[in-house]
Write a structure and sequence with these properties.
The chain is α/β, with parallel strands linked by helices. The chain contains 13 helices and 14 strands. The chain is globular.
Length: 351
C-alpha cells in the first residue's frame, strides 16, 4: 500500500473519509480521521445550519461555519490532512471554495457536476484540488478542460461508483445496470486516463475509489484494480465521532438491505437513501410543504419542488427521522453498532 501525499503531508493509511452534507461530516469527524492517519473531509453543504441566524442569512452562516469547523478539526489533529468537499451544484460554490482555502484546507474535493473553475478559485494557494468523476468520459472532460484552460492537472482524482450514498453521478438506469465487474472495467479506464495526464505533467496523480467500500475485503478489491486508495463515508456515520444525532445513526443500524432504495432528489438527480415515512410520501407523489428557500442548490425551483432537500437533511442530522431524507451508501444496512473512528480505520486496513 502506498500512502497519499498531499502537499508536504503524507497519510498513514491511503484513506479519505468522504464528505457528507448538512452536518454529517463536520470538524469532529474529519479531525478524528486525520488524527488516525487518513484524510478528514468536512462537507460545506449547509454547514451553518446550527448558526442562530441560518434562516435569515444562510450564506453568511455557512461561511462562518466553514472557518469554525476547520478550527475544530485542527484542534483534534493539528498536523493531519484536513480538507473540504464543496459540491459544484451549490449556489455558493465559489464562495465556499474561497472560504475553505482561507480556512487552511489541505485539499478541496468537488463533485455533483464538473468543477471547471476549481483551479481558478484556488490559484495562488497551497490547497490541492480533486474532482469527483463517475465515468471515464467525465474524467476525460474535466482533465482535458483543466489542461487546456489552466495548463494544469488534478492533484488527486476521486472515482465515485454506483454504490455510493447521497446524490449519484449516474442516471437511475445506469446505477441498476452496472455490475461489480463492469464497473471495475470503468475504474481501470479512468485510472489509465488519469495516468496519461500525470505523464504529461510529470506528476503522480493518486486515484481514490469511493462507493460501497465497507470492510477490508472491499479495500483489497479496490487496491487490486490499481487504485491508490479508498474513500469511505457510510462506515463513519455510525461512529462516536460523527456529529449526527444518535437517532440518525440508529436508522443505519436498524435498516435492512431492502430498506435502501434509489430515490429522486428535488432537483431530479438520483440518490440513495433509507426508505421511511417521509420518502414513501414523496415517492407516492405528495408535495411536502417546506421552509423558505435556504439557497442551497443552483438548479432548484422552490415553487415546484416536491420537497426541500435542506429541510430533509437538517431533519436527518437532528434526529427527526420520520420527516428526514436519510441519505446512505449501498451497504449502510451492514452497520450493527456504534464504533470509534480508530476501530473503523484499523478494520479497513487489516490487510
Amino acid at each position: 500500500m502506498k500512502n497519499l501525499k498531499i502537499g508536504e503531508k503524507l497519510t498513514k493509511v491511503p484513506l479519505i473519509q468522504g464528505g457528507m452534507g448538512v452536518g454529517i461530516s463536520l470538524g469532529r469527524l474529519a479531525g478524528s480521521v486525520a488524527k488516525e492517519g487518513g484524510i478528514g473531509i468536512i462537507s460545506s453543504a449547509q454547514i451553518g445550519y446550527r448558526e442562530p441566524y441560518f434562516d435569515q442569512d444562510p450564506a453568511k452562516a455557512n461561511l462562518a461555519a466553514i472557518e469554525k469547523e476547520m478550527k475544530k478539526a485542527r484542534e483534534i489533529s493539528p498536523d493531519g490532512i484536513i480538507g473540504y468537499n464543496v459540491m459544484t451544484a451549490l449556489k455558493e460554490h465559489a464562495a465556499h471554495v474561497k472560504a475553505a482555502v482561507k480556512a487552511g484546507a489541505d485539499i478541496i474535493i468537488s463533485g455533483a457536476g464538473l468543477p471547471t473553475d476549481l483551479p481558478a478559485l484556488t490559484e495562488g494557494s497551497s490547497t490541492k484540488i480533486a474532482p469527483i468523476v463517475s465515468t471515464d468520459k467525465s474524467a476525460h472532460v474535466i482533465l482535458k478542460y483543466w489542461d487546456r484552460k489552466y495548463k494544469r492537472t488534478a492533484d488527486l482524482v476521486v472515482i465515485e461508483g454506483p454504490e455510493a450514498g447521497g446524490h449519484l453521478g449516474f442516471k437511475k438506469e445506469e446505477v441498476e445496470s452496472y455490475t461489480e465487474e463492469s464497473y471495475a472495467e470503468e475504474i481501470r479506464k479512468i485510472i489509465a486516463t488519469v495516468k496519461s495526464y500525470g505523464e504529461k505533467y510529470n506528476v503522480e496523480i493518486p486515484v481514490v475509489v469511493a462507493g460501497g467500500i465497507y470492510d477490508s475485503s472491499d479495500v483489497k478489491r479496490i487496491l487490486a484494480l490499481g487504485a491508490d486508495g479508498v474513500q469511505v463515508a457510510t462506515r463513519f456515520v455510525t461512529t462516536e465521532e460523527c456529529d449526527a444525532d444518535i437517532r440518525y445513526k440508529e436508522a443505519y443500524i436498524n435498516a435492512t438491505k431492502e430498506d435502501i432504495k434509489i430515490v429522486k432528489s428535488p432537483v431530479g438527480m438520483p440518490g440513495r437513501a433509507i426508505m421511511n415515512n417521509f420518502m414513501e410520501r414523496v415517492m407516492g407523489g405528495e408535495k411536502v410543504p417546506h421552509s423558505p428557500c435556504h439557497r442551497c442548490l443552483a438548479k432548484c425551483d422552490p415553487a415546484n419542488i416536491p420537497y426541500c432537500i435542506t429541510d430533509g437533511l437538517i431533519n436527518a442530522v437532528k434526529g427527526n427521522i420520520e420527516n428526514a431524507l436519510l441519505f446512505c451508501g449501498a451497504k449502510a444496512y451492514r452497520a450493527e453498532k456504534i464504533e470509534t473512528v480508530r476501530d473503523v480505520v484499523q478494520e479497513l486496513f487489516a490487510i
